[in-house]
Amino acid sequence: MISLRGNEALLLLLLASCLIVSRVSSQNPRHEKFLRQHSDFPRTNVAGQDYCGAMMLRRGMTRPCKDTNSFVHAPRSDIKDICNRGGTHYRRALRLSRAQLSVTTCKLQGTSRGQCRYWAHTGQRHILIGCDASGWPVHFEESNFM
Questions:
Q1: Catalytic amino acids?
Q2: I need a labelling partner for 144 at 20 to 30 A (CA). Which of 3, 28, 38, 137 fits?
Q3: Of 55, 32, 35, 138, whose CA–CA distance to 104 is shortest?
């Protein structure tokens, strides 16, 4: 039997819990879609291109052109925590973040030669999200800009 000291046991427990959380997350298609469409941390550098055009194309939201989409530039753990302590009940099944987060919102301006053209606004704001019964973010509420 291997004897573990306090710090080693704590590290092992932390590692095991991270593996469990990542396994649960990867088995939740609605949460994975939420991350693909709304999570970008750290913020992707798109040198020489417009951020929204590049990100919407990379994340598969340009066929057809999605009208509005927001990318949250915060660690995934901070976004998930909105479903718990980091958020408050807002209305229906929505949760309002307690903290303001860095968010880039992309709004469709139109199309040019078959490509979606977006207007981008980046700033700090509270966000509204919907969480599933297991406490995973699955919906970003675009209609409320706080």
A1: 38, 139
A2: 28
A3: 55
